[in-house]
Amino acid sequence: MLYVSTRNDKEQVTASQAILKGLAEDGGLFVPEEIPALQVPMEKLAGMTYQETAYEVMKLFLTDFTEEELKQCIAKAYDGKFDTEEIAPLKKVRDTYFLELFHGATIAFKDMALSILPHLMITAARKNQVKNDIVILTATSGDTGKAALAGFAGVEGTKIIVFYPKDGVSPIQQKQMVTQQEDNTFVVGICGNFDQAQTGVKQMFSDKELEKEMEEAGYQFSSANSINIGRLVPQIVYYVYAYARMVQSGEIQAGERINVTVPTGNFGNILAAFYAKNMGLPIGKLICASNENKVLYDFFATGAYDRNREFVLTSSPSMDILISSNLERLIYRIAGNDPEKNRGLMKSLQEKGRYEITEEMRSQLLEFYGNYASEKETSSMIRETYRESGYILDTHTAVAAAVYQKYREETNDKTKTVLASTASPYKFTRSVMTAIDGKYDSKADFELVDELAVLSGVKVPRAIEEIRTAPVRHKTVCEVDEMQRVVREFLQM
Q1: Between the CA of residue 311 and those of 291, 353, 427, what are the distances in Å?
Q2: Among 252, 260, 248, 259, CA closest to 52
Q3: Could you tell me the mean pLDDT of each successive run of 10 residues in the chain, 493 residues long?
Q4: 102: left (phi > 0), else alpha (psi -120 to 50), else beta?
Q5: What is the pTM of this model?
């Protein structure tokens, strides 16, 4: 299996090379030349553990990893860091199946891929005789940052630098990042939003002068954002696993179609579901849920992608994104895998902040349904779900649940649906608790943690207990145009 850039299909790289590079040299994203078909019958997958399922899916994409290497990476990733043996349990609440992707070290779905990425990367570096230290450079809208820090902290031969919007993450998300231990980690708050952080990171990746200086200093950049194919492939696994669990429990018959609802900003998590569908998983509709930064909803509704709009800070900050990087992989595909066509659209996005796809391309998006939830609708969904079932949703999952409700009302489609539950409510205690009852607003953040434990009957996760009294280690804050300077200082260049 070889990979090509969405902007140049002449240059082919192996999976391990794509993982090491993160972003293609032309600024494009790596995609597999074809999407492989699942090889194991569903009846057999239904009896497999998460780790076994991961191997069956990932071996089809990461073909230059040996069986031993891949199994070792999987075993190191999906171990006691997760607080449940199932890794990604499926909870049926009323008539929806919530796929809980927040049982890892940082209680968000990013753990599902970022617990394995460091192992894939170190293995890939050995495979490709890389002598340089790998510098993971990443921007975060809240969750990727901590999950990447947790994955790479203390990993020999790596350093990790995370940029986050100083006023654009929840207090718990910020505390999780700025208390990170280990000398190879560096966390920086920027005076700007996530899109500006992400653009700054991409600019450093494509800066040839900086690359040369890094090489001389014994470093090379790689990415832990969902633009890295080593992030995307592990995400496909949990959709296959969820379907297999439903077959095993008798909720569906093998071959029966399900729908999937995903709250998304950067489009990676729902793209993984799209790839699973293209591998042969019987998925009907892919329901794409946005918050008030509804750039994806508008795209599916009109065929025009336009980031020229006000950036809204919401209670679901991991989705506060106007440039959905992973959408480029889908655009490349519906453009008939034509790099030139895709390059033209991405150039238009960079120069004018918008592009519009053709009617022919739009006709290939019929399997997607897009909608959004307002802040009021998100809050109301948390409250209603708790009152009716006692189950507590985080803000991002609530966005997805509200959009799924709209889809049901519009279409009357009663197909069984898996909803990606992307974060623990403990990450967004204030928004969650005040949605349930306004009286909680006067309490301090960690008081709310204890109240949530009482209300939910779910023990406070280790990730939260650890940061209650942890000292703040990372205090650097910079302007957007100073990002490169702080990177140079940290690397002593």
Answers
A1: 11, 13, 22
A2: 248
A3: 95 95 92 97 97 98 98 96 96 96 95 95 94 94 90 92 94 94 96 94 93 95 89 98 98 97 95 98 98 97 97 93 95 97 97 97 97 98 97 98 98 98 96 96 92 95 92 96 97 94
A4: alpha
A5: 0.93
What type of residue is 133?
A: D
Dihedral over alpha carbons 35, 41, 44, 47 (to 10 degrees): 50
CA atoms of 399 and 420, how far apart (whole Å): 11
Sheet holding 133-139, edge to edge: 219-222, 133-139, 158-165, 185-190, 477-478
From 307, 309, 302, 308, select the one nearest 356 (Cα to Cα).
Answer: 302
In this structure, the strands spanning 185-190 and 283-290 are unpaired
Q: What number does CATH give the domain 90-107+230-467?
A: 3.40.50.1100
Task: Calculate helix-pair angle for 429-436, 375-389, nearest 10 degrees.
Answer: 70
Please name every residue paired with 93 in a beta bridge, in sequence order, or none if there are none. 96
Residue indicated by tokens 């440039």: 323
Under DSSP, is residue 76 helix (H, G, I), strand (E, B) or coil?
A: helix
